[in-house]
């Protein structure tokens, strides 16, 4: 694949994460009056424009079916399953996790399904999105971003992700994730932000309370200093070589995974995994240069079912939906490999091929 410079728009990813957190907060746009909806739309568009990045960072995304949750025998086991996926995504530095809802053929890929689901009718996709988003969020922000929900009852049993942006109170870093609290008093222009330190910091923008933001902390560790901190795009730490967690996206079906890709030019290389795929040794697998790689995992009946149930892909063979269709665990001793197991196995399998491409691209 020819190498060429591209400009990528990451703002939609940041909006997606903000939308997920806003939904977790109980913010619903569907019941607002029309003028307020237009105002919110303008604000989000402004945020999207401010969140544009020009660097050529490559990304790796995974797509997984929410139906795997339906196979769990209890809420606790479902929570542990989701926790395994979150751990795998973090360990292997995944940038985006797309959750596929195979039960619908809808074109609507909004996250309203997460917000509107009650304790009783949480779908597998809604449950997985909520747990993944919760675990990716730094601990000091969770109380402010996630209201109590039955789906979160057993999250305390899960091992922490311990990602680089999950900072302790005594740790100093160039960037910290924060939640906006309120505007400064006495007519000052600015907003207080809780970044998990002993004191809140001030930013020079007025942002509504309850929004997750990425704050550039600078070199001045004096929290009492008068100079405000700066808000930066959530992709900025990633541009500087730091892993900064994964984004979570909802897709109504497999075709929506491709069609609603948040990157401007889409996924330029798509890999499907299945026991029916090609068998190639990891050391012999050569991937083309890519900007945005997608690795997809099927649900209880595999990717074949995902493609068959998608009206947009009627008559299309599953191999035609991907650039490469692989069996990453041949000669298996068990009749089935669970999706959470396949994710760990496959992401380890792809490590060296991806690293070879990255080193080649950097030369």
UniProtKB/TrEMBL annotation:
<feature type="compositionally biased region" description="Polar residues">
    <location>
        <begin position="15"/>
        <end position="28"/>
    </location>
</feature>
<feature type="region of interest" description="Disordered">
    <location>
        <begin position="1"/>
        <end position="56"/>
    </location>
</feature>
<comment type="similarity">
    <text>Belongs to the class IV-like SAM-binding methyltransferase superfamily.</text>
</comment>
<dbReference type="InterPro" id="IPR003750">
    <property type="entry name" value="Put_MeTrfase-C9orf114-like"/>
</dbReference>
<dbReference type="Pfam" id="PF02598">
    <property type="entry name" value="Methyltrn_RNA_3"/>
</dbReference>
<dbReference type="InterPro" id="IPR012340">
    <property type="entry name" value="NA-bd_OB-fold"/>
</dbReference>
<dbReference type="InterPro" id="IPR029026">
    <property type="entry name" value="tRNA_m1G_MTases_N"/>
</dbReference>
<dbReference type="InterPro" id="IPR029028">
    <property type="entry name" value="Alpha/beta_knot_MTases"/>
</dbReference>
<protein>
    <submittedName>
        <fullName>Nucleic acid-binding</fullName>
    </submittedName>
</protein>
């Amino acid at each position: 694949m020819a190498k060429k410079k591209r400009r990528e728009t990451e703002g939609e990813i940041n909006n997606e994460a903000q939308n997920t957190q806003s939904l977790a907060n109980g913010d619903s746009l569907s019941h607002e009056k029309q003028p307020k909806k237009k105002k919110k739309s303008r604000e989000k568009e402004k945020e999207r424009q401010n969140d544009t990045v020009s660097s050529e960072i490559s990304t790796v995304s995974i797509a997984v079916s929410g139906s795997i949750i339906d196979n769990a025998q209890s809420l606790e086991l479902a929570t542990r399953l989701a926790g395994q996926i979150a751990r795998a995504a973090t360990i292997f530095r995944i940038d985006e996790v797309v959750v596929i809802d195979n039960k619908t053929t809808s074109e609507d890929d909004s996250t309203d399904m997460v917000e509107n689901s009650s304790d009783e009718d949480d779908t597998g996709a809604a449950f997985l999105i909520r747990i993944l988003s919760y675990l990716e969020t730094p601990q000091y922000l969770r109380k402010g971003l996630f209201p109590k929900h039955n789906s979160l009852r057993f999250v305390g049993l899960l091992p922490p992700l311990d990602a680089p942006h999950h900072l302790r109170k005594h740790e100093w870093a160039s960037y910290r994730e924060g939640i906006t609290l309120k505007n400064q008093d006495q007519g000052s222009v600015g907003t207080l932000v809780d970044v998990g330190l002993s004191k809140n910091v001030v930013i020079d923008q007025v942002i509504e309370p309850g929004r997750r933001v990425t704050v550039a902390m600078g070199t001045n560790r004096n929290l009492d200093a008068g100079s405000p901190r700066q808000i930066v795009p959530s992709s900025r730490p990633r541009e500087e070589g730091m892993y900064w967690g994964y984004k979570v996206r909802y897709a109504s079906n497999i075709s929506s995974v491709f069609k609603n890709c948040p990157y401007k030019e889409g996924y330029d290389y798509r890999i499907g995994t299945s026991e029916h795929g090609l068998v190639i040794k990891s050391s012999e697998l050569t991937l083309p240069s890519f900007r945005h790689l997608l690795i997809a995992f099927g649900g209880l009946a595999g990717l074949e079912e995902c493609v068959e149930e998608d009206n947009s892909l009627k008559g299309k063979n599953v191999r035609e939906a991907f650039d490469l269709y692989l069996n990453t665990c041949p000669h298996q001793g068990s009749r089935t490999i669970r999706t959470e197991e396949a994710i760990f196995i496959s992401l380890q399998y792809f490590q060296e091929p991806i690293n070879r491409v990255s080193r080649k691209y950097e030369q």
